[in-house]
Amino acid sequence: MNIHEYQAKAILREFGVPVPDGHVCYNGASAREWAKRLSEGPWVVKAQIHAGGRGKGGGVKLARTADEVRNTARDMLGMILRTHQTGPEGKVVTRVLVENGCNIGTELYISLLVDRATSKVTVMASTEGGMDIEEVAAKTPEKIFREAIAPLVGLTPFQCRNLAFSLGLTGKLTNKAVKLLQGLYETFIGCDCSLLEINPLVVTKEGDLLCLDAKFGFDDNAVFRHPKIGDMRDYDEEDPNEVEASQHDLSYVSLAGNIGCLVNGAGLAMATMDIIKHSGGNPANFLDVGGGATIERVTEAFKIILSDKNVKGILVNIFGGIMKCDVIATGVIEAAKQVSLKVPLVVRLEGTNVDKGKEILSASGLNIIAADGMADAANKIVQAVAAA
């Protein structure tokens, strides 16, 4: 789950992390009035969408008068903002953040994330703030500094000072950096985050540290413990199919291909997409129905796959452990009847009750292509889509 920048900064304020004063606005008049309440200017008007690179796309602008804030907000609201993270379709701007400007001296980068290599929360820092961290990692990896945090100890002052020195912070800024970093760590743990990124963290010309932008990612499985954060979810920023899938306990991610995938188990789903690519096709989605899927859930999964107009064929790849092949087969048939399936359908079943499942499919009278093994299934669906 992701949230908007203005929501992220509200959370950081609760943990005592320094951020600029600002307010979210939904029209130009409101933006003008809030600018006057905040300060005498200048101000920054920032489009609020779930994507990075907003500045390059025209979604972050400086305004020196309250009227300029109003006009800038009017221009942004309703625009389709395209960045490297939105894709060519872009996202519609429905709200803007108006906040005080600041005298930027130096831009830095800070993030906290779960490092799967060490199984620890890790702080990453770089002197290259304001840039995409992926670009920094590719071109100048020596400019990225890391501190792995022992879970029973937490982020220590020593680690914070070590990071501060690596970033070139000295004197009073060192103590400010220690306080800020520990505040970020408390935020990360307290909110069950999967990612907390500050880019840029600025050193102002007045000698202060300020989080100029903030991005959060939350562990979806822990959101139930944070109802206030759950209420921040903006469904308009998410893929409608992914939202619908979550209502049925389905793990679904849209992709750009034309072969829909219905699989049980995340690992098998990844392997299925790989073998489709290896066979010359392109998967249209990642969809894991889970180990205990019901007939109803399988039916909903089919509906979600077929709601993507790019889907020209479907591959069902099931390994029955907890999930029984006959249940999947019944669900496939029921779904095919309900949605009036008109695209090629290849089904590969293995595991518990596999013979019974194949009998059910064979007796259905539907045009279902049976497959033996993953390679056979991938080849058949790719060929069927090409011939359709």
TrEMBL record:
Protein name: Succinate--CoA ligase [ADP-forming] subunit beta
Gene Ontology molecular-function annotations: ATP binding; magnesium ion binding; succinate-CoA ligase (ADP-forming) activity; succinate-CoA ligase (GDP-forming) activity
Domain of life: Bacteria
HAMAP family with a match to the protein in the record: Succ_CoA_beta
PROSITE patterns per UniProt: ATP_GRASP (PS50975), SUCCINYL_COA_LIG_3 (PS01217)
UniProt function note: Succinyl-CoA synthetase functions in the citric acid cycle (TCA), coupling the hydrolysis of succinyl-CoA to the synthesis of either ATP or GTP and thus represents the only step of substrate-level phosphorylation in the TCA. The beta subunit provides nucleotide specificity of the enzyme and binds the substrate succinate, while the binding sites for coenzyme A and phosphate are found in the alpha subunit.
Cofactor binding, note field: Binds 1 Mg(2+) ion per subunit.
Species this protein is from: Geotalea daltonii (strain DSM 22248 / JCM 15807 / FRC-32) (Geobacter daltonii)
Binding site for substrate: N264, G321, I322, M323
PANTHER family assigned: SUCCINATE--COA LIGASE [GDP-FORMING] SUBUNIT BETA, MITOCHONDRIAL, SUCCINYL-COA SYNTHETASE BETA CHAIN
Pfam families on file: ATP-grasp_2 (PF08442), Ligase_CoA (PF00549)
